[in-house]
Amino acid sequence: MQSTPFTYINFDTLIIVHSAEVSIFFRKNAAAVARKAGEPLVIEEVIVAAPKAHEVRIRIICTSLCHSDITFWKLKDPPGYFPRILGHESIGVVESIGEDVDEVTEGDIVIPSFMADCGACADCKSKKSNQCSNFPFKVSPWMHREETSRFTDLKGETLYHFLYVSSFSEYTVVDVAHLVKVDPAVPPNRACLLSCGVSTGVGAAWRTANVEARSTVAIFGLGAIGLAVAEGARICGASRIIGVDVNPDKFERGKKFGVTDFVDSASCGDKSLSEVIKEMTGGGADYCFECVGLASLCHVSLAFVKGWGKTVVLGLDKPGTQLSFSSFEVLLSGKTITGSLFGGLKPKHDIPILVKRYMDKSSQQWLAGDLGRQSKRETPTPEGNRELFDNETLAE
Ligand SMILES: [Zn+2]
Ligand SMILES: [Zn+2]
């Protein structure tokens, strides 16, 4: 597309591009472009091509910053690619659709997801997986179906995509397999968080760990993901939620999300962290979540849980980092350690459930971030709360 001879006719932001072979509507809009690793983003005009088959062009209403944007912004080598339009946690409105798109139409409110959900492959049809095999997760610089970009700058240089979303742009093109239609009444500045962080954390407790009512949960790292895990565990009816962090100030914030106990991992004295947790819990937690992204903490987290407990790894260490367990350790332990991509959620099925939870006003703190517990409208027992969540799952 870069080599096509262009003539621009500007109608507000809409421009028509003429060439000998093609006449297509393109959009010229502002985007924050990451030109080089670690350098400030540059706000500039870019050209967003029309959506091809199975693709949708959306106007971004709201986008937030996820830590993965920062991680990939700093990466000099692949999968770091530049110039690139980062951003993947967002909500938008459908502006135009390509051929073979019947799931959404102009004006629909949609949440993009970096996880594809084609609905047709064996994995999408299975309740056990959220990893679409037709469009498996990759940190690709391109669109998913056809490895090309829909972005160019005004000099005709290709701009790379990020996580199939690239939401740091007024307009972006997203494959329909990566879009979830949602209730248009949901506040966009809250709902965009369901595009990645909040869904990942809540889903890890709800879907991946399947936290049981009245269980004990330990969470390593009380950042955005850790707080969302706490909220998910609270909704599932966990009776004790222990937050572990090096910053004691996070306990106060954590309380709003259901954290009941706090361990300052930098002040355990002569005892190891796992000894402290085991003493607090009478032998270990039922579930542990590693939300920091350090391989060493995965080992410690596994030591936290009871003999039959489950450790869920949500943090990502540096590329190439290994986890190692002795054969003896594995054989003699009934523990489970598992990863959790997007909290194990199936985007098209589960994001609308989380939106409904929010719209029902029964659980808003994980999106609002500043509200106290709103348990009045919740079923009063942990089992009932868990059941309420499950019923919503089945209610579709
Ligand atoms: Zn993210
Ligand atoms: Zn699929």
From TrEMBL:
<dbReference type="GO" id="GO:0046294">
    <property type="term" value="P:formaldehyde catabolic process"/>
</dbReference>
<keyword id="KW-0862">Zinc</keyword>
<protein>
    <recommendedName>
        <fullName>Alcohol dehydrogenase-like 7</fullName>
    </recommendedName>
</protein>
<keyword id="KW-0560">Oxidoreductase</keyword>
<keyword id="KW-0520">NAD</keyword>
<dbReference type="InterPro" id="IPR002328">
    <property type="entry name" value="ADH_Zn_CS"/>
</dbReference>
<dbReference type="GO" id="GO:0005829">
    <property type="term" value="C:cytosol"/>
</dbReference>
<feature type="compositionally biased region" description="Basic and acidic residues">
    <location>
        <begin position="373"/>
        <end position="389"/>
    </location>
</feature>
<dbReference type="GO" id="GO:0051903">
    <property type="term" value="F:S-(hydroxymethyl)glutathione dehydrogenase [NAD(P)+] activity"/>
</dbReference>
<comment type="similarity">
    <text>Belongs to the zinc-containing alcohol dehydrogenase family. Class-IV subfamily.</text>
</comment>
<feature type="domain" description="Alcohol dehydrogenase-like N-terminal">
    <location>
        <begin position="53"/>
        <end position="183"/>
    </location>
</feature>
<dbReference type="GO" id="GO:0008270">
    <property type="term" value="F:zinc ion binding"/>
</dbReference>
<keyword id="KW-0479">Metal-binding</keyword>
<dbReference type="InterPro" id="IPR013149">
    <property type="entry name" value="ADH-like_C"/>
</dbReference>
<dbReference type="InterPro" id="IPR011032">
    <property type="entry name" value="GroES-like_sf"/>
</dbReference>
<feature type="region of interest" description="Disordered">
    <location>
        <begin position="369"/>
        <end position="396"/>
    </location>
</feature>
<comment type="subunit">
    <text>Homodimer.</text>
</comment>
<dbReference type="Pfam" id="PF08240">
    <property type="entry name" value="ADH_N"/>
</dbReference>
<dbReference type="Pfam" id="PF00107">
    <property type="entry name" value="ADH_zinc_N"/>
</dbReference>
<dbReference type="InterPro" id="IPR036291">
    <property type="entry name" value="NAD(P)-bd_dom_sf"/>
</dbReference>
<dbReference type="InterPro" id="IPR013154">
    <property type="entry name" value="ADH-like_N"/>
</dbReference>
<feature type="domain" description="Alcohol dehydrogenase-like C-terminal">
    <location>
        <begin position="224"/>
        <end position="355"/>
    </location>
</feature>
